[in-house]
UniProtKB/TrEMBL annotation:
Catalytic activity of the protein: 3-phosphoshikimate + phosphoenolpyruvate = 5-O-(1-carboxyvinyl)-3-phosphoshikimate + phosphate
GO molecular-function terms, A-Z: 3-phosphoshikimate 1-carboxyvinyltransferase activity
Compositional bias ranges of the Basic and acidic residues kind: 69-85
Keywords: Amino-acid biosynthesis, Aromatic amino acid biosynthesis, Cytoplasm, Transferase
Region spans: Disordered: 67-93
Gene giving rise to this polypeptide: aroA
Localization in the cell: Cytoplasm
A cellular-component GO term for this protein: cytoplasm
Keyword Transcription: no
Record protein name field: 3-phosphoshikimate 1-carboxyvinyltransferase
Alphabetized Gene3D superfamilies for the sequence: Enolpyruvate transferase domain (3.65.10.10)
Organism: Daejeonella lutea
Listed NCBIfam families: aroA (TIGR01356)
PANTHER family listed in its UniProt record: AROM/DEHYDROQUINATE SYNTHASE (PTHR21090), PENTAFUNCTIONAL AROM POLYPEPTIDE (PTHR21090:SF5)
UniProt similarity note: Belongs to the EPSP synthase family.
Amino acid sequence: MSSAAIKISAETKKLSGTIHLTGSKSESNRALIMQAMSKGAVTVTNVSEAADTVTLLGILQPSLPTEASAKEGKVTTESEPRDQSSDLASRISHPIDIGPAGTAMRFLTAYYTLQDGEVTLTGSARMKQRPIGILVDALRELGAEIDYTENDGYPPIRIKGPLKQKSERVSIKGDISSQYISSLLLAAPLLEKGLYLDIEGELTSKPYVEMTLAMLSQAGIRYTWDANTIHIPNQPYANCEISVEPDWSAASYWYAIAALADEAELFLPGLNGYSLQGDSKITEIMANFGITSQFKDGGVFLKKEPKTVERKIFDFKECPDLAQTVVVVCAALGHDATFTGLETLKIKETDRVNALQVELAKIGVKLIEKNMTYKLDCSERDLSKSITVNTYDDHRMAMAFAPLALVLNEMQIEDHRVVEKSYPHFWKDLESIGYNIEVLNSK
Ligand SMILES: O=C(O)C1=C[C@@H](OP(=O)(O)O)[C@@H](O)[C@H](O)C1
Ligand SMILES: C=C(OP(=O)(O)O)C(=O)O
């Protein structure tokens, strides 16, 4: 990834425009795994242009021109089933590198336990620090052969399939990452004995598990979820076409921009009020900041109305990817809110809590931890300086801080291409509503 920095400033604080967001990364990555699991019975439209999705598509369908098919927004299925055994054989000596894509890493882990052959899955330096032991342990209990080629509990992992199912029941910790659970659920219909999955302890990021089950339902998969147990019997994936909704996590940055503008009227086509994405909760969160959301004409209209922010506590357990967006907005407005549900942020693209603390200090704002809750202290907030924001290989650091350009005279953002992970056109879209973006250097 390039390490070029950009200088960004806002020409006006009165914003209006239409922003066409790319498809949801989470929905796309599930749909692509379902397409592969179902050998093409499931097809996908409006697939995301996120680099994480393009990478996954490239791995699952090597014979398709991946970027072109992602851009067209439709992934077609090959008419002839591909001979996967030769692909798998060639991968024994060539590890599959999923870069920084967390969901792709986790979803492919269960997927490859069902395939014939041996593969090694690896990723970026950060991916090798993101835990996968909980998922590997569960799959081993079911009968999978998986080992670690570097450090126990972390990628790279070597998977030898196909799994000979030993057990129909497995329990899994719910409070580290919901992606382990989604990975098992996507594979469950193809397990000979089906799967009883017992979720131990609290379930974090629950809407993502609900999204997985809702998408499985679209492909005709029957399941039950009683108390802490999800049961999926063995059954085939049915033919279906999944249409991916635009990405609500990407939409959150437009809500943040609206919240920091003097006036804002923005239209985001394709989004509706009944999303599978838990991050659609941004509408409710941002209502506290005076941003109204009106669903009409096939999309959502955001409008800024004058409002004093009163809400003091924001919880992100169900929508962790919104945390940075909302914390930065509160800091910019000098609103000393308290944040909960940030536990899983430390194992994402970077330690997001630490990254927020270091970068917010540049505008004199502190984010202070006390008994697992985090409180903003804006008493020494200073918006008069020009700052340079580091992004820590984290797309959401770049996009969550970009709205600050509306309240600072000038700012720089390091390594701006990091946004490609989920939202490749983010900077172009900002320019379209009146931001000035200047690329400074390319090391
Ligand atoms: O399943 C998914 O698509 C995701 C689940 C969440 O991760 P955790 O379950 O690890 O919180 C979220 O942060 C990530 O961006 C996408
Ligand atoms: C955490 C994220 O993604 P992943 O876990 O898929 O890398 C994210 O997009 O914020």
